[in-house]
Design goal:
It is built from 18 helices and five strands. It is mostly helical. α2 packs across α9, α7 packs across α12 and α10 crosses α18. About 1% of the residues have low confidence.
C-alpha cells in the first residue's frame, strides 16, 4: 500500500503528466454533465417510464449502457460517440475498395490523414441526422414529447442539438487524445460503461440476496468468475509472438586488427490482438444499425420481420452469431491496417538485419504475414467468444445489466482502454526514473523491447 501511495505521489510530481490527467478529467466531467441535460420539448420521466416496459433484451438497453444512461434520459449526448465510430468504419472499409481512399491512407502522409479526418467528421454528421431522426421517432412514439411544443420546432431544434452533441463529443475525444491521457474516443465510451457499473453491481447483490436468489455464496462465485474472465482478457490483450531478428556481422578494430563480431539479436513483437478494442467497437456499431432501421419502420407503420426483431435482442442466437462473425472479420481488417509486413521487411533490409532461416525481401514479408495471419485467428476467436459471453451468462440467471460486464464489449473496452492508459502513465514514470505502476508484468511502457518501426503493434 505504501508503494502504491508513493507511485501516486510520483505521478502528481510530474508536471506534464499531472496536466494531462487534470485536462482529461475536466473534459470527461463536461461529457458526463451533458448526459443529464435533457433535450427541449422532451419529458425524461415519461420516456423512462415507457422504456421500462420494453423487452429486457432490447439492444437499445445495451446502447443506453454505452452512453452512460444518456439515451433513456433524452440528453443532448443521447447518441453518444457511436455515429463517429460508424463513420470511421465506413471510411476505413472504403480504404480497401476505393483507390482514392487508399492513396489517402497509405501515400499522402499527414495531409492524407487530415483529409480522411474531415471526411469522417462530415459523414458523422450525416449519420447523426439519420440516427437522430430515428431516436426522435422513438420519443414521439413513447409519448414523451411535450404536446405544447410545435412538431416542426421539436424536430428541427432537436435534430440540430443531437448532431451538435455528437460532434462536440467527437471533439472532446480528439482533444483528450491530443492533449490528455489515452485514446479519447475509447475513453468516452469507457466512462459511459463505468457510469452504469455501480447500479448494476448493487442490483445483482439485491437479486442474489432475495429469497428467490442464489444467496451470498453464488454471488461470490460470480465475482471469482468475473475475475477469471478479466485475467484471461488481459492475457490475450498483452500476449505477443516474438519473431527473432539477427543483425549482420560487423568489423571491429582498425587495419589488420579488424575482427568480425556477431551482430546483435532482437525480435519483432507481433501482438496476438494487434487490433486492440477497435474490432469490438466497429462490430457493435454495425449491430446498432437494425435499431435505426426498426425506428424508421415503426414511423412508417411497417411491421418488422422476425430476423430484424432477433437482431434487436442482444441475447438472441441470431444476434450473437452475427456479432461473433463481425468481430472476426473486423479483427482481420483492422490488423491489416495496423500491421504491414512489407514495412517490416523493408525496415529489416535497410538495417542490414534478417530473420534466421528466412531470405530478406519478399520471403521475409511473406513469413511475417503468415505469422500475423496465424496468430490473428485464435485472437479473433477469443475476442468473439468474450463478446458473446454476456448472453451466455445472462442465460444462467445473472442480472442482465451485470452480465454485460462478464465479457462482451463492456469488458473488452474497459480492459483495453485501462491498459492503454496505464501504459502511457508507465512510460511517463519510467522516463523520469521513477518506479512504474507495477513491479512485474508486461505493460508496454515497461517492456519496450523489440523492433517496431511502424508503431502499430
Amino acid at each position: 500500500m505504501k508503494e502504491f501511495i508513493n507511485t501516486l505521489r510520483n505521478i502528481w510530481k510530474i508536471h506534464e503528466l499531472r496536466k494531462r490527467i487534470l485536462f482529461t478529467v475536466g473534459l470527461i466531467a463536461i461529457y458526463r454533465f451533458g448526459a443529464y441535460v435533457a433535450l427541449p420539448g422532451v419529458m425524461p420521466k415519461v420516456l423512462l417510464k415507457a422504456v421500462e416496459g420494453r423487452d429486457a433484451n432490447d439492444i437499445l438497453g445495451l446502447l443506453n449502457t454505452f452512453t452512460g444512461g444518456a439515451l433513456f434520459q433524452a440528453s443532448i449526448f443521447a447518441l453518444g460517440i457511436m455515429p463517429y465510430i460508424t463513420s470511421s468504419i465506413i471510411v476505413q472499409l472504403l480504404g480497401f475498395a476505393v483507390p482514392y481512399f487508399q492513396r489517402l491512407q497509405q501515400k499522402e502522409g499527414e495531409s492524407g490523414r487530415n483529409k480522411l479526418n474531415q471526411i469522417t467528421r462530415w459523414l458523422t454528421v450525416l449519420i447523426t441526422l439519420v440516427q437522430g431522426g430515428g431516436y426522435l421517432t422513438t420519443i414521439v412514439a413513447s409519448g414523451a414529447k411535450d404536446p405544447s411544443l410545435s412538431p416542426y420546432v421539436f424536430w428541427m431544434v432537436n435534430i440540430i442539438i443531437l448532431s451538435t452533441g455528437t460532434v462536440f463529443a467527437m471533439w472532446l475525444g480528439e482533444r483528450i487524445t491530443e492533449r490528455g491521457l489515452g485514446n479519447g474516443i475509447s475513453l468516452l465510451i469507457m466512462i459511459g460503461i463505468i457510469a452504469r457499473l455501480p447500479q448494476s453491481f448493487f442490483a445483482e447483490i439485491q437479486s442474489q440476496l432475495a429469497q428467490s436468489g442464489g444467496g451470498l455464496i453464488l454471488f461470490v462465485i460470480e465475482l471469482f468468475a468475473l475475475f477469471a474472465i478479466v485475467a484471461l482478457t488481459v492475457l490475450i490483450t498483452q500476449g505477443v509472438r516474438k519473431i527473432p531478428v539477427q543483425f549482420a556481422k560487423k568489423m571491429v578494430g582498425k587495419g589488420t586488427n579488424q575482427m568480425p563480431v556477431a551482430g546483435a539479436r532482437d525480435y519483432i513483437p507481433v501482438k496476438v490482438n494487434a487490433a486492440g478494442v477497435m474490432p469490438i467497437i466497429f462490430a457493435q456499431a454495425i449491430m446498432f444499425l437494425p435499431v435505426t432501421l426498426m425506428q424508421w419502420m415503426s414511423k412508417s407503420g411497417t411491421e418488422a420481420s422476425g430476423l430484424l426483431l432477433s437482431l434487436n435482442r442482444w441475447t438472441s442466437v441470431t444476434y450473437n452469431v452475427m456479432f461473433f462473425l463481425l468481430i472476426i472479420l473486423f479483427t482481420y481488417i483492422y490488423t491489416a491496417l495496423v500491421v504491414n509486413p512489407k514495412q517490416y521487411a523493408d525496415y529489416l533490409k535497410r538495417m542490414n538485419a534478417f530473420i534466421p532461416g528466412v531470405k530478406p525481401g519478399k520471403s521475409t514479408e511473406e513469413f511475417i504475414d503468415s505469422i500475423v495471419t496465424k496468430i490473428t485467428l485464435p485472437g479473433s476467436i477469443f475476442l468473439g467468444f468474450i463478446s458473446i459471453s454476456p448472453a451466455i451468462i445472462a442465460a444462467m440467471g445473472v442480472n442482465q445489466a451485470f452480465a454485460l460486464f462478464f465479457g462482451g464489449t463492456s469488458l473488452l473496452i474497459l480492459v483495453g482502454v485501462m491498459l492503454d492508459t496505464m501504459q502511457q502513465i508507465e512510460s511517463h514514470l519510467l522516463m523520469r526514473k521513477y518506479d512504474g505502476l507495477v513491479k512485474s508484468g508486461k505493460l508496454r511502457g515497461r517492456s519496450s523491447g523489440g523492433i517496431n518501426p511502424i508503431g502499430g503493434m
